[in-house]
What we know:
heterodimer, A: alpha+beta, Alpha-Beta Plaits, 2 domains, 5-stranded antiparallel sheet, 4-stranded antiparallel sheet, B: alpha/beta, 6-stranded parallel sheet, 23 helices
Amino acid sequence: MDKTHILSILVENESGVLTRVAGLFSARGFNIDSISVAKTLEKNESKIIITTSGDSYILEQITKQLNRLINVIKVQELTDEDSVVRQTVLVKVNADETTRADVFRIKDIFNGRIIDVSKNSYTLEVTGSEKKIESLIDVLKPMGIKDIVKAGTIAMPRSKKSS
Amino acid sequence: MKTETKRNEVQQAAGQRQSTSYAKKELMTGSRIIIESLIREGVDTIFGYPGGAVLNIYDELLNYKDKIRHILVRHEQGAAHAADGYSRASGKIGVALVTSGPGATNTITGIATAFMDSIPMVILTGQVPTNLIGNDAFQEADTVGITRPCTKHNYLVKDIKDLAKTIKEAFYIASTGRPGPVLIDIPKDITSSVTEFEYPADVELKGYNPTYFGHHVQISRMVNEILKAQRPLFYIGGGVILSNAGTELKEVAELLDIPVTSTLMGLGGFPSEHPLFFGMLGMHGTYPANMAISNADFIIAVGARFDDRVTGKVEEFGRDARFAHIDIDPSSIGKNVKIDIPVVGDVKSVLNSMLEMLNGKNKEIESGRYERLKWLEEINAWKYEHPLSYKMTDVIKPQFVIEKIYELTGGDAIICTEVGQSQMWTAQFYKFKNPRTLLTSGGLGTMGYGFPAAIGAQVARPDKTVFDIAGDGSIQMNIQELGTAVQFNLPVKIAIINNNFLGMIRQWQELFYDKRYSFSEMNVNPDFVKLAEAYGAVGLRATKPEEVEGVIKKALSVKKPVIMDFVVAREESVYPMVAPGAPITGMLLV
């Protein structure tokens, strides 16, 4: 069964490392649904978060092949239950006299912010789970979305609960 | 004259510094750092071809003539294959040195060949000066970008301070874990700038830590299952040879009377004439090998990777068996076939652990022996039912040539092959006794590999007779290396199985395309005898079966490169054969 998986890949921050990781996915026919890369606090280390899809066999292959790369330090699968997962979206939506109040209300419901305003549009910034972002888009669509940019998913494991 | 004296001084200084070891850091050019580092890695041979971006390194190389032998090839592809052949024949790391742009791109096939077969190699490529990188400069190519998917790892050295460390890492990565080629791209300005030289004692790689010792619990599960199995079978691959585990494998197999079958890459890992050995399996595997794998109840894959040419229809491969798989590369395990007992580790080390565990289990070993011997008898029956065979006629049969080469070399030669029919007949009819005596492009299937590889092997093993068994098609892919062989007095023996066809292509067209021989006939070939003579080598020809022995004997008696042109039956095919994607029990026999 194909399922979405989130992989957290700790790499040495060397030139070309992103190409190595991305090249591996294309060379072996794996998918990248979203990707997000940034330095960590550790010197010379970066973290790549990739969302991909496939069955458990594909996931095992991806993990093993990633581990073969010399610059890859650690590969970890982050599951929805054991980790916090966030997406951020910027949406520029039509906001004239008839819709402005609605957009404003939706922004509040989704815990978002308005970060840019013009005569006819508001730009919203919303962060949340993938589902939340999807439903935001569904709600805004009828009003007319002028532009949309989504960042790659980021995620980290939840702290262990002391029980 | 003045420069000459200067060079001598430099050389003397180099000699002195070596004796005083690393006590004092010395200022050196990048070029010298490269060569000094190579020497510290034990390199005494380089296969290469000069060019603009590596001129500084080449100039320095002259100062080290007594320490490093440089073999000038005729094409950079030849350098890569020769370094590969050198490595396979000796177990050491092969080194190639080429220039930027076309020099580097010409090595790609050689690098990819080594990558697929896990051969430890270091390739040094020149690059345009750092300030020109990205400018589409003369002879510029994104070498690191191009070679990324076909190297184990690669580097672009942007700062001379990283040079020695990079070389250290490259040799370490190439030779440890699952071995492979590592490329270092070195811009020209780095080779001329100067820094303090200190060769690092260790490497520190956070993301690289190969597992050598197999997990005790897994090994013990595997041993117990072997002891319980009634029809166990070893399926060995190139990992046995890379890990130098031939002796250990033989010990385990003999202790338990477990039959052995091998991939193309594993041939030589177990003696072919041994009563427990049943030959190669897979598409052109022997009948007993393919029947054994299909009827075994427990298969132990040892340093093999379940390639599609081995498994045939993968669902039917080992259809009645449970699998254990010993491999140093976890990503090989479970990739194509579901494995019941994975053992990640070095083949030699894991086999040694098995021997230790078996020690003291005499009772268990003996209690299963009867069943195992019965199984062995069953496989032997298959062997007698359908042995490898061919029909003699009044034209030369390719298989006959291979058998004669085997007979006249006593199975003691290093045999390199090209790719196609001649390769498969070699695998079937030459009975390899020892590891590192078959050098063949198994994974990538590179025509043009065999001859330059033979040159590398002959450089590594001057004491050995080295053959390249070729077809008339593949020999022409790197025929220019005859110049190299003659120049460096490398008495490689080339046996051309000449059928004026791309034989394996013709065979597939015969079987699967209604004999529509689309562009597989080599209508024009050179006169190979004259060609050899033109290069200053020896050319011999046999056109009748009774001439074969004489030609081979003659070739063995001359201390020069020899081409033997065996004019063979034109439409002979390799059998058994399993159609691609079919179960390997579905063998087309002779």
